[in-house]
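This entry is retained here.
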Amino acid sequence: MAMSYLFTAPTSCFARPRKSLRDLSSRLGSQSFLEWELLGKAACEKRGGGQIGKNSLTVFCQQGVVSVARKDEAVSQSFDGSTAQLNIVMKFGGSSVASAERMREVADLILSFPNECPIIVLSAMGKTTNKLLLAGEKAVGCGISHVSEMDELSFVKELHLKTVDELAVDRLIVSGLLDELEQLLKGIAMMKELTLRTKDYLVSFGECMSTRIFAAYLNKIGAKARQYDAFDIGFITTDDFTNADILEATYPAVAKRLHGDWIRDPAIPVVTGFLGKGWKSCAVTTLGRGGSDLTATTIGKALGLREIQVWKDVDGVLTCDPNIHPKAEPVPHLTFDEAAELAYFGAQVLHPQSMRPAREGDVPVRVKNSYNRQAPGTLITRSRDMSKALLTSIVLKQNITLLDIVSTRMLGQYGFLAKVFSIFEDLGISVDSVATSEVSISLTLDPSKIWSRELIQQELDHVVEELEKISVVNLLQGRSIISLIGNVQRSSLILERAFNVLRKNGVNVQMISQGASKVNISLVVNDSEAKQAVAALHEAFFEDGFNAEIQSDDGRHRTAPACFPTIDPLNSHCPTLGSYLRVPSLSLPPRRSAFGR
C-alpha cells in the first residue's frame, strides 16, 4: 500500500503551527492537535531521524524537519481506472538540452516511449551554469553601469531568447526571469559581494528557464506538460549553500505534490534539477555540481518508480575516461556500491550522492546516451553476479593533496584519530582516503571543493598549522588518486597485475587504501604520471584478455605470482610491496562509505 503525505513543517514552527496541525487533525479525525505536537517533538527529541507510528500514521524527523504520513488506498489506484501511472524518471543533462534542436530531439525521444509516463528532470542549457557563475564573479567588481554589457549576461540572454524563438514558444516564458537575473547581478555589483547564498540563487535561473522552455514546447506539440521548480514542490535541504543535502522530509512532500497533481490532471512533470530549499532559511539551495542526478534519484525513491533513466552524452558508464584512453568501453552492469565509488572518485557520469536514494528505494538506474538512444547503456542495481567479475572501471581524480601525519602519541593510545579528524571537521574539509600504521596516518584531501585558489592555500596552511600542534606533518600537493573499481575481494590478483604494470611504466605508488566496501582499491601517484598510469592499467586489465584469463582459471589453484611480493622477499627477484608504498603498514581501517557524509 502506498503512502500519502499530509503535513511537513520545521519543528521550529511547532510552537504555534495551529492552522496546519488542526487541519491535519480534522482531516484524519483521530488525533488531537496536542497529540500531533507531542508526536512531532518526540520524533525529533527522542528518536531524531527515526520513525514513530500511531495507528496507520508515521512521523518522520530529520535535522528538525517533521513529516506526517498516512497509508492511503487511493495512491495505488490507477488514473481513470487505467494503468497509466507515473513510472519512470528521465533526467537530461545540459548538453542534451543545449539548443532548440537538442530540445526537439529530447522531446522526440520522450514521445518515442508511448507506454511510459515519465517525470522529466532537466539541467540548465549547455554552458549556462558556468556563465552565470562567471557573471556573478565579474559583477562584484564591474560596477552597476557595466552589468548590462557583460558578455556572460548577453550569452545567457541570447541563448534562451534564440531557443524560444526557434521553438516558436512565447518569449514571456523567460523574459521575466532574464529581467530578474539582470537586476540580481546589479544588486551584486552594488553590494560588491557574492555570498554562497546569492550564488545558489544566481545559478538557479538556468534550470528555471530550461524547464519552462521545454514544458512550453511539449505543450505546443500536443504532449501535455507541467513545469515545476524543485524548491516549490518539497525539495527540503540543509542550509549548506552550494552543496546542500536533501532531508528525509523531501520524499513525502515530493510524492504528495507530484502524485496528487497527476491524479487530478495528468501532465508530464518537468522538474528543475540541482535545486532545493533550505529548511531554516527557505532560500534556494543547490545540491552541488551534477546535482540533477540526485534530483532524479530522489524523485524515483519518493514515488517508488520502476526505473530512473539518466541520459548523458556518452554510452553509459565507461571502463575509463575516454579523454585519457580512447579504447574505453561501456560497462553493461554495475552495483549501487560500484557506481557510488566511481562517482565519488572522479567519474563525471553521475553525482557522487545520487546512488543513495536509488539504493535505499531499490530503484534501478539506467545510464544512457541521448545522442545514441539505441546503445544499451549501463544498468545499476543492488546486486549482480560477481562470481566472474574482476575490474569494472578505472577512474582518476586529479589535483589531490596528500598529507602524512607522524606522531609517536599514536602508540597504544586512543582518541588520536578523533583529534586529527576533528580539525578537518572544524574547517569543513572532506577527507577522501585514509591509511594508518602504528605511528603515522596518510590521507588525501580534495581542495577543489574550496571556491578559490587563495582560499585553498589558506585552508591548507591552517590545516597544517593545527596538525603540527600534535604531530609532524608533510603536505604534498599535485597528486592523483587512481581507483580500481570492481570485485576487490580478489585484490591479490588485481594488485599483482597493477603493480607489475606500474613498475614497468616507472610509476611510483605513494599510498594505497582499500576500504570495507570491497569494491575499490585506491592508489595515489604523482599528477604528472597519472594519465599514463591509467592508460597502461586499462590496456592491461581490459585489452589483453586478462578478465577472460582469470575466468578460465576459476576453480584452479594459482601459484605464487611471478613478479609480486613473495613470502621470502630477501630471496626474491621481485621488489617487495614496501618498495612501492610510502605507507608503513597495509593494515587499513575501513574508509567511509560514499553514501555517507
Summary: Residues 196-220 form the longest helix (25 residues).
